Write the C-alpha cells for this entry.
Amino acid sequence: MLRKSSTLTATFAFAAAGWTLAGALAAAPPDLGDDATYRTWRDKLLPSAQEDAWRRIAWRPTFWDAVREARQQDRPVLVWLINGPGLGRC
C-alpha cells in the first residue's frame, strides 16, 4: 500500500509542476526593450559570416552531377551522407 501511495504522490507532484510550467509559459512575452536591445540580441543569435560560410558552397543536386563536374575539373567529390533525419541523434 505504501508503494501505491508514493506513486500517487509523485503523480500529483508532476501534475502540479506541469500546471505551474504551463502557467509560466502562457504569461505575456518578455519585453525586448528598444531597437538597440533588439539589434544586440539579433546580432548575438544570428550566425556570423564565418559560421554561415557553408551556405556559399555550390552544392550539386545529385551525386552524378557532382561526379561529372569533378571529372571535368579533375577535382575530388565531397560526399555528405546522413543516416536518418538530419536533426536526429548523433
